[in-house]
Amino acid sequence: MANNNENNKMSREEAGRKGGEKTSQNHDKEFYQEIGHKGGETTSQNHDKEFYQEIGEKGGEKTSQTHDKEFYQEIGEKGGEKTSQTHDKEFYQEIGQKGGEKTSQNHDKEFYREIGEKGGRQRRSG
To answer: Using CA atoms, how far apart are residues 4 and 36, in angstroms rounded to an integer?
Structure first.
């Protein structure tokens, strides 16, 4: 049912819904991809790295509240498969080296001793 105000006018919500329905009848997928691309470009020009980190963090928190471990395993697997299709051995060597360098900057010998022990225990029990 229409949500009308005192002057018997359409509510903003209903007007938006009707406009969206009409637009979807007149445009295809490419139209929405194009305007989405333009919006993304404009947003990137108007916002910095911190903006994206903040919205990513908020989205991540919300997602973690509504999804379980299996969800993350599934999307991780899909992402890994897609990445392996589009990247070569050198890509993995480069990101592995970067990750190793960053980890060595952030951790001391005790950290490596602990993960080495954990890895050794898993290997013996596996």
So the answer is: 31
